[in-house]
């Protein structure tokens, strides 16, 4: 199993409390910038890899309704030293500023549960004012903290030497590239945990997603201290635990990947020969961290969509050798 360490950029900005994005606008754009290295390293597979990445991005743009453009550099390296990794530029905010923007941006049922009585996003800073709070640059756009613009919001990078399937059924011994790409894109969009760690030189740092980590009634901003003690995703202050997070104390890697179980694009680990979709709980998680989910009137077609995800170990957010 290949593992990926944490790697992300820091972008500290002044706090622009810009709220009021149009409810359920239909112009959410994820704009890829495929580098020459991406094309050169994937070679004859470059077109297929580009199409797979775009299909992964479309899962988010069709399921969410932001009136923003997110710009992502899409890179590749030769060989297998990297499986998939992401770099996210971060925007710092006070807890009060972040809370106010989350409240102003609330539009969906899960949003209102999260900010309501008994919700996971509380008016009081759970660190008692000791924490430093960050969102990714893309997430800051979704929350109205900064305006949409043409600047780069982050990077996803892939090891072109890994055996990938780019479309259709995932062949034995290969990994679902669409799922890997969805995993990394979601991290640029804000699906990262900081867990009280150090961002650059800023200690005691937390992400918005860290607010949604619970072990029963107790919030677990970091990992929880060992096997079986990691948090689970909850929007209602721990009353309902929707899916367990990775045990970062035991496994290392990312705080806010899923621990495993059902094949899922957001898992910390996955094996070859399987499709890993973006699941309903994945979409619910993205919804409450700044992306308003589109509610369709059709109950019959599945909500999610994408296949893909992450290799047996390659996993998520910032993976690099």
How would you describe this structure in keywords?
321 residues; alpha/beta; four-stranded mixed beta sheet; 8 helices; globular; disordered N terminus
The H/E string reads EHHEEEHHEHEEEHEEEEEEHH
Instruction: Specify the structural class.
Output: alpha/beta
Which stretches of 5+ consecutive residues score pLDDT under 50?
A: 1-25, 298-321
The percent range for strand residues is: 15-25%
Q: How many individual β-strands?
A: 14
**What's the Cα radius of gyration?**
18 Å
Strand order of the largest sheet: 1-2-6-3
Main pleated-sheet profile? 4 strands, mixed
Question: Ends: how far apart?
Answer: 13 Å
Helix content: 10-25%
Total number of helices: 8
The backbone outline, from C-alpha atoms, is globular
Please tell me the overall pLDDT: 84
Structural description of this entry:
- The chain is of the alpha/beta class.
- The chain has a domain at 29-208 and 266-288.
- Helix content is 24%, strand content 18%.
- It contains 8 helices and 14 strands.
- The protein has helices spanning 36-42, 46-63, 95-105, 109-115, 137-143, 177-189, 248-251, 280-288; strands at residues 29-34, 69-77, 84-88, 90-93, 132-136, 154-159, 164-165, 175-176, 197-199, 202-207, 213-215, 218-219, 232-233, 243-244.
- The chain has a 4-stranded mixed β-sheet. Strands 4-5-10-9 form a 4-stranded mixed β-sheet. The protein has a 4-stranded antiparallel β-sheet with strand order 12-11-13-14, with no helix packed on it.
- Helix 2 (46-63) crosses helix 6 (177-189).
- The chain is globular, with a radius of gyration of 18 Å.
- The two termini are 13 Å apart.
- 53% of the residues are buried.
């Amino acid at each position: 199993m290949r593992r990926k360490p944490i790697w992300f950029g820091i972008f500290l900005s002044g706090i622009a409390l810009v709220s009021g994005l149009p409810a359920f606008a239909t112009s959410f754009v994820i704009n890829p910038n495929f580098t020459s290295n991406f094309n050169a390293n994937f070679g004859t597979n470059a077109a297929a890899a580009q199409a797979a990445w775009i299909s992964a991005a479309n899962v988010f743009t069709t399921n969410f309704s932001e009136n923003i453009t997110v710009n992502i550099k899409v890179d590749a390296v030769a060989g297998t030293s990297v499986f998939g990794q992401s770099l996210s530029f971060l925007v710092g905010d006070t807890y009060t500023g972040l809370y106010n923007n989350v409240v102003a941006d609330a539009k969906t049922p899960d949003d209102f549960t999260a900010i309501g009585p008994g919700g996971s996003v509380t008016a009081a800073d759970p660190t008692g004012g000791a924490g430093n709070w960050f969102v990714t640059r893309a997430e800051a756009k979704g929350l109205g903290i900064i305006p949409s613009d043409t600047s780069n919001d982050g990077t996803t990078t892939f090891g072109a030497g890994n055996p990938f399937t780019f479309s259709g059924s995932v062949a034995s011994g290969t990994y679902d590239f669409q799922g890997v790409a969805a995993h990394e894109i979601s991290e640029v969009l804000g699906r990262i945990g900081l867990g009280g760690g150090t961002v650059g030189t800023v200690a005691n740092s937390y992400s918005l997603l860290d607010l949604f980590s619970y072990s029963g009634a107790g919030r677990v901003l970091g990992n929880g201290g060992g096997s079986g003690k990691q948090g689970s995703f909850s929007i209602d202050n721990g009353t309902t635990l929707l899916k367990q997070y990775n045990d970062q104390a035991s496994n290392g890697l990312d705080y806010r990947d899923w621990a495993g179980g059902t094949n899922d694009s957001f898992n910390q680990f996955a094996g070859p020969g399987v499709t890993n979709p973006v699941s309903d709980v994945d979409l619910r998680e993205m919804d409450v961290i700044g992306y308003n989910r589109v509610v369709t009137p059709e109950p019959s077609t599945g909500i999610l969509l994408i296949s893909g995800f992450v290799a047996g170990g390659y996993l998520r957010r910032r993976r690099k050798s």
